[in-house]
Amino acid sequence: MVHIAVYTFPFGSHAAPLLSLVAKLAAEAPTATFSFFNTGKSNAAIATTVAACKALGNVNVYEVWDGVPEGYEFEGRPREEIELFLEALPGNLRQAMEAAVAGGSGRVTCVLGDAFMSAAGELAEEMGVPWVSLWTSATFSLLAHFYTESIRRVIGVRPEDVQAKQDDTLDFVPALSPFRVRDLMDGIVTNIDGIFPRMLQQMAETSPRATAIVFNTFDGLESAFLDHVRTIYRQILTIGPFSLLLPPPSQADPYGCLAWLDGINQPASVAYISFGSFLSLPPSELAALAEGLEASDTHFIWSMKDAARTHLPPGFLMRTKERGLVVPWAPQTALLGHPATGAFVTHCGWNSVLESVADGVPMICRPVFVDQTLNARAVTNVWRIGVAAEGGVFTKEGAVRSLNLVLAGEEGKKMRETALALKEMARSSVSAGGSSSNNFAALLKILSASGCSSNK
Fold first, then answer.
1. Catalytic residue among 3, 14, 299, 347
2. Residue whose C-alpha is closest to residue 288's, from 385, 403, 369
3. Rounded to whole angstroms, how far apart are CA atoms 215 and 212?
4. Residue 371 among the catalytic residues
5. Fewer CB atoms < 10 Å away: N or C end of the chain?
């Protein structure tokens, strides 16, 4: 009997792609049992996918203790919820797994876990079963974590040293020469103390022990980085873009975004704007971007939470109602795939970057935190399919220049041609015989074989 224990990192956008992967694996391997372990709060946030998985009949969803003691009063510290959860590891995972096994799911034969969850690897090693790790971001961001100690030795960690070297490139690190010190995420040379940075360092140290690491990417996009990753890890399986390999169910369009786009006669002329489900720009930048949209006469769809509308310039919505649509939520993948969409104004979360690549849409990048600065640098300076917000922030004049460049300029035309070539490469990778399709089959084989073998 094959029983796969699946452990997710229950914060940010980590849980949804892992559970989507479980859904496809479970559909392809109906005789295997999948036990998905997640906190109750995170399960509630992805309730639609949870329900779809349960309907398959071979996916069981369990709640893991989030580490918050009864009666605990939050102090308002950054990452306080994450720290409490990490302090509960691995005991909370082990307890949930033992309950699943006792409940009739049978002996665990393989562990599939978010790469952040090195505790999942510890459990796999205790049980003597294969451990498959999912890295939900780009391969170059994993390399940045892997080479943290090397980077610290060269750059230093004192704030004055790091600040003085912001524009230095990482050419002393294999495969990371396109990036600068300023592109690195927190926890590498800045804000290195605390349980969360220690978790990332532990992840980098333990991840090479995994039986295989799965990436949401495709071979042609990150060839140079993947060549180096393959020298570190035992087996690399690129199975992205997830938006193509694991397409979501048909998305609702409650605010009529697609119908509105259908009314735009000029292809590749609309800017789609979204900064993800968890982020918002500073109010001054929201106002500056709105002013730039208005001054540039750009058609746009802006996915913006209702609360953020208070930061828009007075009268903006009325003055732009003929060429703009501001909605609380938009069907992102459908919008990016519409022929009228010509630019994606984005925070450069990895899922958003790959969705844009999968549909050949150039980007205007305004990263906010974590790996987004690395992703934005890759978009603008490695693949050259986008432009960064001037000076790292939106101003009215900078937004006008960026919009005009991508939507109407010759440079934007070249970006679009390159993006469309990557789109074809992405779609080829997930087609029959493509690299991502073949690697997904290899992942299925690892999981299925775990019922009669181990990684010993």
1. 14
2. 403
3. 10
4. no
5. C
